[in-house]
Fold each of these.
Amino acid sequence: MNDGGGDGSGYGRIGNLPDEDPTLTRVGLNTPMGELLRRYWQPVCLSAELDDLPRRIRVMGEDLVGYRDRNGRPGLLYAHCIHRGASLEFGQIDDDGIRCCYHGWYFDAEGRCLDQPAEPPGSDYKDKVRQPWYPVREYRGLVFAYMGPPDKIPDFPVFDVLERDDCDHIAYRNYTRGEIADCNWLQLQENGIDGWHTFVLHTWDRGVHNFTDAYAARPDLDFQSTGHGVQYIRDATLPNGNRFIRISEVIVPTARSIPPPTVDGTDPDSETEPARMVGWWVPVDDTHTMGFHIEMRPRGARGAAYQPTEPYVRDYVERQRRPDDWEAQVGQGPIVNHAREHLGTSDRGVVMFRRLLRDGIAAIAKDRDPPGILRNQKYPLYKIGARNQVTAPDD
Ligand code: FES
Ligand SMILES: [Fe+2]
């Protein structure tokens, strides 16, 4: 933002909102980012949430219903029955699909209509209609959907940092910005490449989310492109003389991998390890976002190392005294207006990530794949460099 050489008075600068560039933030169908987001598999709910009842799910402004049929197969359909619009969240789950409560049209996971009890016997009308549906895949406790053009469906990628079979995996919703965050997805995703905030926000009052004194030593930060995302390399010498290097990365468009936040910098052996989580910030619509984590933990360990798995509520004054990610990012407003920002050198990672998103949008416009899309791979794998490294002074 150009401050125009005035004295900085708010007059004309606050009331006159500069035009917001919606390119990177809007998630609707036929918007540039909406189309980019739809080219990737995105988590839409927990596997455990598809039980004996259907579940209403809103993703990228589309109203959907997830369910699991009695044979165990998950499905994701448009929420409103194509007959006359009753919501399938009130439907009845059966062996091969879900039956609308209103007149009993019965749909399978690919939207085929298997039965219409109120049509005449022998009618082939059911073969002529199809409920809108999306392909789904389950991975380590999350249900993922592909909501893009069917001919562009990519391989389903797995993440090397989650692929250890001698560990347990837990999947949970990220409630750290509320059950559903009241803001645009991008400001949450950008926080994942904002290494500097771990030195400022998370040392304001240590321990709100397991951040320790080790984050209070002023770090150096470097940023690096991975092709499918951007990494920060955070390098600090701690008061005890140990060196603490933390590498974290964001992955186009909504994923990130972060090493455990619990390092206190005292034990090089146990604290040096690769990241054990991948998280996603999935747009509900332009101004709401839901978060998911898959975390890998040593077999038999209890609880989540990264985040609380239950919603937690803090009092307003308490939030003012001990602000956390919720206050910082949801407090930016429903959609950050990039035209109002004054980016500094500390924001280099954010700038690199936005550039990668724009590259992706440009690639789609040229009918090419955006960054990180894998096709025809025997073992579609994302290699993730996120890790903690603690070394003693003589190493
Ligand atoms: S509205 Fe669904 S069967 Fe009639
Ligand atoms: Fe944070």
Amino acid sequence: MKITIDTDLEQLSVDDNEVQTTLDLFSDEAFEIISGQWAKVGWNQRYVYTFSWMGRPIIQLPEDMVRTQEVIYRVKPDVIVETGIAHGGSLIYYASLCKAMGKGRVIGVDIEIRPHNRKAVEEHEMFDLITMIEGSSIDSDIVGQVKALIKPGETVLVILDSNHTKQHVADELEAYHDLVTKDSYIVATDGSMKDLYNAPRGEADWIWNHPTAAAEEFAEAHPEFAIEQPAWPFNESGLSKNITHWPGAWLRRE
Ligand SMILES: C[S@@+](CC[C@H](N)C(=O)[O-])C[C@H]1O[C@@H](n2cnc3c(N)ncnc32)[C@H](O)[C@@H]1O
């Protein structure tokens, strides 16, 4: 595909070998095309590895963080479960939102919590709202440990950000979906892999081996869940689609 931006003519042209389309550069559609390429190139350049939250690295696109904040503020979960801790920045982020709302706590699971990351999270101002569990997120003992920390009737949001193979995410969806309460979500993050398979840092099998594929099969098998991008609480634009590394990620429990 060839994308051409002509700033003099204020046009964006897309030539995909069969069809050529020319758009007004200052149109919502042109913005979406540019944003898609921006996200792809940015991922390759490790843009998401440049952010931190309250001192801890968080490996997320800021728009995904802000959209998640919109959901957390609306759902006001008692418990946020996240698989995939890494440096702990996302746990700290969710916990800081819980602290600001005066409601909620966070449970994180990682197959390997490196000692310096554990220490930094344990010494952090937000640690009183965080529990970390070390082990594979699909190990039945680990799943049991997470579930034992949640009381009946609590509102739960689950974010899956660990191993992003289709099979692993499918197993996580099966393991954790029963925790998710009505109108809350289980989020299969990082489905942008399906668009990144041909980027220099991508891998060929990502064309099929990605979290969104697991989410789609899960939604078909579990009609109580629908793939649905959460509505934006504020929108004074003509835009409607997230610029995201989490396409098709949000599974809402009906
Ligand atoms: C993308 S990073 C998580 C990023 C983090 N959520 C953030 O926003 O900064 C993925 C993490 O998943 C962990 N991981 C990989 N396989 C796992 C598994 N089977 N169970 C739990 N964690 C796993 C890795 O150790 C790594 O720390």
